[in-house]
Amino acid sequence: MEVNCEGCAGCCMDWRPLLEDGSESTEAKDGENGGDNASSSDRDSGRRHRRQRDPIDSATGDASSREPFDDDPNFVALTRDEVRAFLEAGMADALTPRFWAARNESEGVGVDGHTVAAIAGRPAFFVGLRKPPKPVAPFGREEPTWLPSCVFLDPTTLQCRIHESDLFPDECGSYPAYNLALEQETECERVEAAVGGDRLLETEYDDTDGLLLGSQALGAKLFSHPRPADLEGIVDRTAAGELTRRDRAELIAVAAASSPGTLAISDHHYEWAKARVIEGEDAEPTAESESWVGPVIRDWHERCREADGALPSPAVADAVEVERGAPETPGWDALE
Question: pLDDT digits over 46-67, tens only?
Fold first, then answer.
């Protein structure tokens, strides 16, 4: 389907602060290097909420929504195979989990004083892409603003660095068709309503099998942790935006070890995936253990913390991202 993405990237960032007249800080908290339980400077940020389609409803037939513990308005849910592909590419630092609050105690599991939405007594979660703060100027704005933006978004061109690669998520490639199929408002329409312009140029869409609704979602995109006790502390840090590398490793490993259509977990894949996430924690990164992604996320968080209100040009991304090995983007002229 046809959409006008040039100068937008509304689905790749949290642009709500642009409508809030600066009343809310977009600066991320100190990350995995910034607390007693931390290990590298990239704490997941943002605590502002927007209700989204509830994925557990899709798997169970429930009708009312649950609120996520994080505050990413455009969370990209990855499949098990996509999680494995990112791990194989050394990009574990790009990944983060999402939990939801249960509507009542009967449908959830108590962890850290929270009632976490669960399936068969096992806390349910997604794995998606992280959004460090970046200086971006969407929607034709002349001045950049620090906004939580997808780790793969080029701040200069507002294009995806992995768009034509094998790692490009199906959820991104099928947007906004999935929203339309679910009769949900698209980010294109939100942008049109907020800043004008034409973004959603047609509403006809093709096959949406990748939605993975109902039992298809379980173990393929919607995961469940078999040991709720192992999540003590992790759920609290999720709600506070203070996840550490080891916290993320536990959830990412379960996702990578899941079996589509079942609750089964592969011990082999669990151990492999957990090692892929934490292997670079206490040592200098190597080409095998960490790509450009981890250092880029840490650098953006550090620059945002130290900016003290200053706003660098988006072109600083050449030094932060490209010089570390991030793929360049073609620009819009090259696509015409």
Answer: 333 333 445 565 554 443 478 9
Alpha carbons 110 and 106: distance in angstroms, whole number: 10
Q: How many CA atoms lie within 13 A of 169 on its CB side?
A: 24
User: What global pTM score does this model have?
Assistant: 0.88
Query: At 104, phi and psi to the nearest 5?
Result: -155, 170
Rounded to whole angstroms, how far apart are CA atoms 122 and 250?
14
Q: Are 290 and 280 spatial neighbours (Cβ–Cβ below 8 Å)?
A: yes
Task: Give a yes or no: residue 38 inside a domain.
Answer: yes
Is 36 inside a domain boundary? yes
Mapped onto helix, strand or coil, the DSSP state of residue 283 is: coil
Tokens 């990112």 sit on residue: 86
Residues 6+ apart with CB under 8 A from 297: 31, 42, 93, 94, 130, 132, 151
| Structure tokens given for 261 | 């259509």
Q: How far apart are CA 293 and CA 275, in angstroms?
A: 17
Q: Specify the range with the lowest mean pLDDT, choosing from 28-37, 220-229, 231-240.
A: 28-37
- In this structure, is residue 5 part of a structural domain? no
Question: Does residue 144 fall inside a structural domain?
Answer: yes
Provide the number of structural domains found in the chain: 1
Structural domain that includes position 65: 10-326
